[in-house]
């Protein structure tokens, strides 16, 4: 679901009025959809923007009907100051997880919290 929301935001951002700017040419585009539900697509535009995604159906729960689409991909673009930013992502039964050198990451867990969690796990509470 988060993946769909992310794509919706991307679509809205791309559809926003561009003023008098000319459209950016797509220099390559590929897509594949298979009978088993797997798919892949990628494209690159003349401004260096690149998008790639692939996915397939996967059993994500204990019941036969617990089937979902798991996807992974990346996108990169150049900022106005010339820096290329790349985001790699996975969307699966664990949710949407994006990584990139420019994205913030949480600080390491304090040692006392690590010890407390280990103690709770050893006691069978977790």
UniProtKB/TrEMBL annotation:
GO terms for cellular component: chitin-based extracellular matrix. Residues 44-73 are annotated as: Disordered. Pfam families: Chitin_bind_4 (PF00379). The keyword Signal applies. Residues 1-15 form the signal peptide. The keyword Signal applies. Keywords: Cuticle, Signal. This is Endocuticle structural glycoprotein SgAbd-2. It comes from Daphnia pulex (Water flea).
